[in-house]
Amino acid sequence: MKAVQVMGYGDVDQLEVVDREIPVPKENEVLVKVKACAINNTEIWMREGAYGTGTKSGWRPEGVQFPRTPGSDITGTIVKAGQQVNEEMIGKNVVLFPFTSSGEPGSEHISEDMSFIGSEYDGGYADYVVWPAELCFDMPLADYTESAVFSVSGMTAWHMVEQIQPKQGETVMVTGANGGVGSLNVQIASRVFGANVIAIVGDLALEDQLKKLGATHVLSYKSDQLAEEILEVNGGPIDSVLDVVGDALFSTSLHVLKKGGKFCTSGSAGGQKTELDFRTLYLKHITLYGSVLGTREEFKRMLKAIADGKITPVIDRMFPLEQAREAQRYFKKAGKLGKIVLLPEE
């Protein structure tokens, strides 16, 4: 089979297209013919060494072992089953829950042994992948590509919104609203929880598209008066922030939050370190949440919301598997809206 492997830390030249043996599923696993695999920041930051370049460079203490096939947003068809797996699963179209864990229900994502597909296991930048049968769920939509854009970014977004628990009519600000997680934050907060959403992007040409996803207002982080604009369109301080940017908008976010407001972050594309005046935190009674991934039950709730049409896929562009380097370069460009997807069969 064809696969794309990360050979080590560095630029996209560390991605190589190779020929490998088709993996054999263990007794509790299935072999999945990959139909689509969406790209996430996670695999790019892993390759670039943003998580570290020694131990703790992945999700486990020992670090990533190279070469590694990345890719965690995977859909496909089960073509082979291990000995302990019901053969009726063969032929099913599935979406893969992206990590293993021995954590109790509700805390799987914070278990010490949480291990991620595409980091600790070979992932979906390939023609085939093996995965535990119990972590393969029915696709929420009929289309492979559309169903592939939710796994990691969707579960991350869903978990973020569940943590802040916005009430009907409250205002939530979403940073990086044109990205994979951000565009889903907009949809989940507005369409599922009934919040008003202020979407923050760089390019206001995306305004109409983001309003179709549920945004009430769309503002640009390039404005010199962003904080004032946020307070103006909302008629005062906002209730919560869903953030994937980090440093670049951190002080603005805390400034526009009301007393008792909530700030939830799952990314730091605009800077991984920041300055915090603790007086802002305690005088405004702000609650901070760190968030990444989520639980199996949240994953199931998300899939149901997708199947019910409350959340829709947002796809910017598709690439054939062999163009993984070009796809990851494109992923890092500004001005996109939605997900980038690799298609092994193209």
UniProtKB/TrEMBL annotation:
UniProt-listed SUPFAM superfamilies: GroES-like (SSF50129), NAD(P)-binding Rossmann-fold domains (SSF51735)
UniProt xrefs under InterPro entries: ADH-like_C, ADH-like_N, ER, GroES-like_sf, NAD(P)-bd_dom_sf, Zinc_ADH-like
Residue span(s) of domain Enoyl reductase (ER): 10-342
GO molecular function: oxidoreductase activity
SMART domains: PKS_ER
A Pfam short name: ADH_N
Xref: PANTHER family: DEHYDROGENASE, PUTATIVE (AFU_ORTHOLOGUE AFUA_2G13270)-RELATED, PTHR45033
Protein name: Zinc-binding dehydrogenase
